[in-house]
Design goal:
43% helix; alpha+beta; 4 domains; 565 residues; 19 helices; [isocitrate dehydrogenase (NADP+)] kinase activity; single chain; EC 3.1.3.-
Length: 565
């Protein structure tokens, strides 16, 4: 039937993608106005809106195709030809790699993740190679010469931010004073910035590099609001600090680009340790980030031979977690049933993980990638792991010949569980880790997230030494919690009774009890009480709730205090 020809199918899917990217870009285009107006509530709304755009456009495209197709069957010839036609349409398309992922999403939605192979899908990209490193197509370049201040002033002007600064001359003086040793050491002659400005939460970021006769350095200039206007808040020149800014634990950037592959290639030049998947996700293209991850995963499987095993650490009551020792992620699936005292169900746990996807993660919650019907080679599973998964989550595990298929799976970056880290740490590293642990809890709370289960096993330590929360089945909004002090006992016998002498509601939380579960080791208690004693007082939590209800958004910077100007 003509309306279901491969060419028409291909054209309709590409039309759906182009509509998606126009709307996606329109949301990004509003970021400068929201930033300049300090419309932080609007920033939060736009982040959530942008996440939902993709799924809606896929649904619309699927509905349009269902009206055209005579029957929903996987015709190898039809879809193989449609994919070929689609590839022809993508020749020269500025977002070709993203459009391939959109094709995959539409096909998977139509056929409920059946027939997932390279005949029907872009398991491997049709693009011959990565986009070239082409700064001349993306950047403004300014000669430092004898007047570096003027070069940076021009950069702020090109970014259309100069007129909103409070004291730009003072800011530029501090910036040049900070950069002078590096400029001298590298014999820097030019500074280069990407034309698009990166926006996230309460900050704008100029991203580029210093270019010298003796080398180059990444350069990120965070810009924030002060009392009377904008100011340069920090200067970032270390790769590790750049990596933290683009971390998997933070909300996605808003940035305008019609050639994302070129932009990502430039970012990878600045941060070579970052994966393609993580960088695509960092600018809000998390669906293609999943595609990049999957391709890298298949490549790693082909070049390795170790087996998947149960992840180290204390087993969770809600999730079963496994890993491949040679690969830096963990795979998590929800168990079929939860042991007491857990009272939630699978649907509620999935809602919690979706909440994290949409919420500001403030650098303290790991991003998760959600997959359906993820296939693993059966021979790579250890017998112990397979037995564990079939025992804990039989409804999620399907044995299909030489494959093991997990019907619903979450994938996160692997970190060292905090409890394991503390067991092997000396006093200095214990003190630093406990400081980071308390900071993580405080920053989450300021962003309206109560972790729920604050045991050390639910937090991880990143390669940068940051402590990150990663177990979401008990999180709640701070504003939904009722923080209370334990009332004094009525009689001496009350303290010896098996049951509390006071009523406890389902949302009641008693912070003074935290120490009983967390601070058993003397060195941990000493460190915690020195740095975060306030977390044990209901008054502290109630004060944060008041700020949140008053619309006061946290001012959490994604860089070290030493980087600030």
């Amino acid at each position: 039937m003509d309306k279901g020809t491969p060419k028409r199918i291909a054209y309709r899917i590409l039309t759906g993608f182009d509509q998606h990217y126009r709307i996606f870009s329109r949301v990004n285009a509003g970021a400068p106005e929201r930033f300049l107006a300090a419309d932080w509530a609007g920033v939060q709304r736009a982040q959530k809106q942008r996440i939902h755009i993709y799924s809606q456009r896929v649904s619309d495209t699927v509905a349009a195709l269902m009206a055209r197709l005579d029957s929903l069957t996987i015709s190898t010839e039809l879809w193989r030809t449609a994919k070929g036609e689609y590839s022809e349409l993508l020749q020269g398309h500025p977002q070709a790699e993203l459009a391939e992922t959109f094709f995959n999403s539409v096909f998977s939605r139509l056929f409920r993740h059946r027939g997932l192979d390279n005949q029907h899908l872009y398991i491997h990209t049709s693009s011959a190679r990565r986009a070239p490193f082409a700064p001349h197509q993306l950047c403004w370049r300014f000669s430092l010469g004898e007047r570096p201040r003027e070069a940076f002033r021009r950069a702020l002007g090109y970014a259309r931010l100069l007129g909103a600064f409070e004291e730009v001359d003072s800011d530029l003086t501090r910036l040049c004073d900070r950069l002078t040793p590096l400029i001298d050491r590298l014999q820097v002659h030019d500074v280069e910035f990407l034309k698009p400005v990166f926006y996230r939460n309460k900050g704008a970021y100029l991203v580029g590099r210093l270019i010298g006769h003796r080398g180059e350095s990444p350069l990120i200039l965070p810009i924030r609001h002060g009392d009377g206007g904008l100011s340069l808040d920090a200067v970032i020149t270390r790769q590790d600090d750049c990596s933290v800014i683009f971390s998997f634990t933070r909300a996605y950037f808003m940035v305008e680009t019609d050639r994302p592959a070129l932009l990502i290639r430039y970012l990878r030049h600045l941060m070579p340790n970052k994966s393609w998947a993580e960088l695509y996700s960092a600018i809000g293209l998390q669906k293609h980030g999943k595609t990049e991850f999957y391709r890298d995963f298949l490549h790693h499987l082909n070049g390795s031979s170790d087996q998947f095993v149960i992840a180290p650490g204390i087993k969770g009551m809600v999730m079963s977690v496994f890993t491949l020792p040679s690969y830096d992620v963990v795979f998590k699936l929800i168990k079929d049933s939860f042991a007491p005292p857990k009272e939630s169900n699978k649907a509620e746990v999935r809602e919690k993980y979706n909440l994290v996807k949409e919420h500001d993660r403030v650098g303290r919650m790991a991003d998760t990638q959600e997959f359906s019907n993820f296939a693993f080679p059966r021979h790579r599973f250890s017998p112990t792991l397979l037995e564990e998964l079939q025992s804990c989550a039989p409804s999620e595990v399907e044995l299909d010949g030489d494959r093991i298929i997990i019907r619903h799976l979450y994938i996160e970056r692997r970190m060292t569980p905090l409890n394991i880290y503390l067991d092997g740490a000396d006093d200095l590293h214990v003190h630093r880790a406990i400081g980071e642990y308390g900071n993580a809890i405080k920053q989450l709370a300021a962003a309206n997230i109560f972790p729920g289960d604050m045991l050390f096993k639910n937090f991880g330590v990143t390669r940068h030494g940051r402590v990150v929360f990663y177990d979401y089945d008990e999180i709640d909004y701070m504003t939904d919690c009722n923080f209370r002090e334990i009332p004094p006992p009525r009689y001496p016998e009350d303290e010896l009774a098996a049951e509390p002498w006071y009523s406890v509601g389902p949302k009641d939380i008693f912070p003074e009890e935290f120490g009983r579960f967390l601070l058993g080791r003397p060195e941990i208690r000493k460190s915690f009480m020195a740095q975060h004693r306030d977390l044990l007082r209901a008054e502290y939590w109630q004060g944060l709730q008041s700020q949140i209800r008053d619309g006061i958004y946290p001012d959490i910077r994604p860089y070290r205090p030493e980087c600030r100007l």
